[in-house]
What we know:
Blueprint: H1 3-15, H2 18-24, H3 29-43, E1 48-50, E2 55-57, H4 59-86, E3 92-97, H5 105-116, E4 121-126, H6 129-138, E5 143-146, E6 156-171, E7 181-183, E8 191-193, H7 202-215, E9 220-222, H8 228-236, E10 242-245, E11 256-262, E12 270-278, H9 284-302
Parallel strand pairs: 3-4, 3-5, 7-11, 8-9
Antiparallel strand pairs: 1-2, 5-12, 6-10, 6-11, 6-12
Helix pairs in contact: 1-2, 1-3, 1-4, 5-9
Amino acid sequence: MDLRQLKQFTVLAEELNFRRAATRLHMTQPPLSAAIQRLEESVGVLLFDRDRSKVRLTAAGTAFLREVRQLLAQAEAAVATARSAEQGVTDALGIAAVDSVAFELLPGILQTFCAAFPSAQISLQMASTENAIAALHKGTLDVAIIVPSANPAGGLTITALTEERFCLAVAAHHRLSHRRTVRLSELADDQFVSLYPFSSGPGYSVALLQAFHDAKIYPRIAPGDSRTLANLVLVSAGVSVALVPRPVRHLQVAGVTFLDVVSEARKPLRYPLALAKASGNDSPLVKVFEDMAREAVAGKRKRPTRA
């Protein structure tokens, strides 16, 4: 199996006609048919159903097509990266970040960065802390903004960036929806939807558990989804309430009201954000990104915020 065969398979899957596929590939039908047959033998399954009138993808062929398209895209990206390096263009930065920073912090950082380095090739993915750390270990990322846990991952350099606040999402008809600020202890009888499974977001989970412990309440936790929007829809229906990162307030979900939430001492509930990179990564672009992130945080602190 080689990339040429995979390209031939992809074109045939798109055309579902050997004549048209062969024309696109600048070849004749018999060699194309033979190449597809060899590919099926290599994979060990039939990828196409064929008869005299039409060609159809099998279930296995449909699944294979999804993977092949990703593989071909990665191969093209690898070629582009190699050619860029040959030309001396190596300004590339792979970034991951937890979803909550996409609303306020991250856009400002990237705007400043891209203005300073307009030729830099930026790749960005929104990811859980768990997935971002895994990508850093694999070397597929350069830097990430994560919610750190008490037990830092080995092989990484993790530095504190800032703290972000939680807020409370409730249904518009919730008994406390008219309030601007509530104490966590006032929610002792409510059911909470769990937004952050411990395995994917231990930093979030630890902060939430500590807040509940301090408030001396033992919350009822309903099954949740890893996607914030899905959980907010449950909140809108009055099924549960949710503690979410405060920047999530920027999402407009019908029937959901966001309230500030504080401890018994009237202190905001917070969780940490940190920068993470592979230990020994001395990339100048990573350092610049880290410096700009710290500057963005400092600028945010200087701006007045609603209590």
